[in-house]
Amino acid sequence: MDKIYFISDAHLGSWGIEHARMQERRLVRFLDSIKHQAKAIYLLGDMFDFWYEWRYAVPKGYTRFLGKLSELTDIGIEVHFFTGNHDIWMYGYLEEECGVVIHRNAETVEIYNKVFYLAHGDGLGDPDLQFRFIRGMFHNRTCQRLFSMLHPRLSMWFGMTWAKHSRMKRKDVSGKENGCGADGTLFNGNVTTTYNTSGEPEYMGEDREHLVLYTKEYMTTHPDIDYFIYGHRHIELDLMLSNNKRMLILGDWITQFTYAVFDGEHLLLSEYEEGATKFD
């Protein structure tokens, strides 16, 4: 069967995730379970918690995941990797060794006569100036070259520590600081935000969710797009934008283990269950 799969946000290797090896194995088992049904797999960013390539070195680990990607491409399955804000720094290794197609920006693609807008989602409609500044530094070629001059032992420690701090900070905000109630609700002035167990804000509604606002504005100048699919937010969202336009946010592969699948007629947001995949 020629199905198209979409997943995001595994954050493999994170120092802030317990049982990281088991998490990687679960992802590999999922990829193995769909290999006889998949025509293409789209990885929509942050599959690694921190990934940086040097000319002659790459981060250690991830052998099960990278091996599975190589197996999938070897048998003719397209694997597309959209870089996220945690794994921007890819310079050829996954393309050359694993046969993966790397995308550094949002892409509009046609799949089975439907038009998809695909992106990780970071930086799209987010007004946070601090985040935009940091994102600009991460994408800056001069900053990247300077970082590459560091010894991998120091730079990897720095990157993994930054990624862990980012995750732990969100968890702290969700449950311990800023007037947060026992149910995870954060009271901050006139704004009330609820956080889930991973520290990510829950869906904030159509009038406040940055990706929704961005998508609605983008639709006005790109009316041909049928489906918008994002990662980044670590929430599951399946939103009808109009009678024939739909937006999905894919959740994550840390606590939710969710994915989307398209068979040419139906697009379904589902959850991986060990030993079985829905929508077979």
Give the SSE layout.
Layout: E1 3-7, H1 20-34, E2 38-43, H2 63-74, E3 78-82, H3 93-98, E4 101-103, E5 107-111, E6 114-119, H4 129-139, H5 141-148, H6 152-175, E7 185-188, E8 191-194, H7 210-221, E9 227-230, E10 236-240, E11 246-250, E12 258-262, E13 267-271
Helix pairs in contact: 1-2
Class by helix and strand content? alpha/beta
* Helix percentage: 25-40%
* SSE pattern, N- to C-terminal: EHEHEHEEEHHHEEHEEEEE
What does the overall shape look like? globular
Radius of gyration, rounded? 19 Å
Overall mean pLDDT: 82
Weakly predicted, low-confidence segments: 172-194
Read across the widest sheet, the strand sequence of neighbours is 4-3-2-1-12-13
Largest sheet: 6 strands, mixed
Please indicate the percent range of residues in DSSP E strands (runs of 2 or more). Answer: 15-25%
What's the total helix number?
A: 7
Question: Total strand count, please?
Answer: 13
Distance between the termini: 9 Å
